[in-house]
Amino acid sequence: MSLQVTESSQSGAMVLHLKGRLDSNTSGDFEAKMLGIIHGGQTRLVLDLGQLDYISSAGLRVLIKSMKELKAKSGLMYLCAMQDYIKEVFDLSGFTSFLPIHPSLEESLKAL
Amino acid sequence: MPHDTMSFQLASEASELERLYLIIEDFGKANDVPAEAIFQINLTLEEIVSNSIKYGYQGEAGHTIDLSISLNSGTVTIIIEDDGLPFNLLDLPEPDIHCPVEDRPIGGLGVHLARTLMDVLEYDRREGKNVLCLKKRITIEN
After folding, report:
1. What's the fold here for domain A3-111?
2. pTM score
């Protein structure tokens, strides 16, 4: 019942692979990580959500906050590979207008 | 028709959310509730219980929240009761989900999702308690 985040660098972007749950218990650490990365100067981010089992509003909050920070630096962030039931949450939240979602990591990297 | 009811209590602490997820997942698996519905119910319960702790109990530990979950005729019903301060999460304003990211508020999405994903979400203040009832219609997996 935790969130594991591993980083990789691909096509000049930082890719974060999330595994587990992004909820009110794990969102604090994830927010610190995201803001650290963005403040460190990284402006091209891809979140690979292929192994994300769960997201709640606490997780969505971190993504909006990160996107606001990125936008101020003319950065961009893509999401990819998520399960259908998680994608529905993004659709219902109106995120897709500012946070593009791709079916696979390859497609996100190609779109960068 | 399968019919099962279960009652349990949570302490007013954020760490209890983990136990809540597991209880709901176990209930769902035992009753063939589709994984997607279990996810949506858990998301809604996380919202309700964390608001109950934060606003109803003002973040104070040492209180309890009563829950019951049942499945009858293809509908999962969950009742959540706390005796904290009156707090109706359905009074929270709906966020504007169409404005650009620069203007988006950072919070407020939880209630919007809960309302959208559940078939029924009702609040009542009864005998000094906040009582929330949610219902989710499901298709039982074979």
Report:
1. Transcription Regulator spoIIAA (3.30.750)
2. 0.93
